[in-house]
Write a structure and sequence with these properties.
Largest sheet: none
Distance between the termini: 72 Å
Number of strands: 0
CATH superfamily of the largest domain: Leucine-rich Repeat Variant
CATH class of the largest domain: Mainly Alpha
Shape: elongated
Oligomer: single chain
Structural class: mainly alpha
Mean pLDDT: 92
CATH topology of the largest domain: Leucine-rich Repeat Variant
Order of helices and strands: HHHHHHHHHHHHHHHHHH
Strand content: under 5%
Radius of gyration: 22 Å
């Protein structure tokens, strides 16, 4: 099978020819769902071959047709379109190209819909794309924070979505939005509930950034600390990164209390 994938990539116009039924259908008539699914699935299989990733992404019709499939296909087609974008986004040059083409918005919309079949592929694609700074900005602008937080609050795909949220938390607008959407109590409750070290680490990393950016959230953190000692416990028992972040929050909160008392 890999040799067939490689052979496809050696022909300059093979990808365009593969997509031509969809391109023609788009212009003249409605795309047949089975045809769309077969073509997108074939594209996914071809994209798995490393030598094909650049060629596939840079074929002008590919990303627009994947975006169209994300919006209009069967759930299998939409899931495979997301998986194709994930596979292509292994290359940094493709991350930039996919982001510039506007593919984050339909991915975020599909995440918002929350179909179980598509969630993992969509989350993986968004995560990979947001590794580069300009795509973080685009994802925040396209509503990723609200959609991701809503899913996390409903305890859906928490592991994958917390990883994306932690990545987006380097963006100031994302942090402001998290504050408005009551992310702090939600993240603290996950630290209390979960046994997953990675989830605790992602939660405390986000809380650390919020703590140092938005003093209006200190009160909630102090109340949590006084009631459950959530942050203190993580400072003692977490991973080395979680301990560092938790200790940083506690120092900041204690310093603020001391300054208030001495003022």
């Amino acid at each position: 099978m890999p040799s067939f994938r490689a052979l496809f990539g050696e022909s300059l116009d093979a990808i365009s020819q593969l997509l031509s039924p969809l391109s023609q259908s788009n212009c003249e008539t409605v795309v047949h769902p089975d045809l769309q699914e077969d073509v997108i699935t074939t594209l996914l299989n071809l994209s798995i071959h490393d030598n094909n990733k650049k060629l596939v992404a840079e074929t002008p019709t590919v990303i627009p047709l994947l975006m169209d499939a994300l919006k209009t296909g069967t759930i299998e087609t939409r899931s495979n379109a997301a998986a194709t974008l994930f596979t292509l986004s292994a290359l940094d040059s493709n991350k930039a190209l996919i982001g510039k083409s506007g593919a984050l918005k339909p991915l975020i919309d599909l995440l918002d819909e929350g179909h179980p079949l598509a969630m993992k592929d969509v989350a993986s694609a968004i995560f990979n794309l947001c590794i580069i700074h300009e795509n973080k900005v685009r994802a925040v602008r396209d509503g990723a924070v609200r959609v991701i937080l809503k899913k996390i609050m409903n305890r859906l795909h928490v592991d994958e979505l917390l990883s994306i949220l932690a990545m987006l938390s380097t963006n100031q607008k994302a942090i402001e939005e998290m504050g408005e959407l009551e992310a702090v109590p939600c993240l603290l409750s996950i630290i209390r509930e979960t046994s997953c070290d990675r989830n605790k680490e992602n939660c405390i990393a986000i809380l650390y950034t919020i703590c140092f950016s938005d003093r209006s959230k200190w009160k909630v953190m102090r109340e949590e600390e006084s009631m459950y000692r959530t942050i203190s416990q993580l400072a003692q028992n977490g991973t080395s990164r979680a301990k560092r972040k938790a200790s940083g929050i506690l120092e900041r909160l204690n310093r603020a209390v001391n300054l208030t008392h001495t003022a």
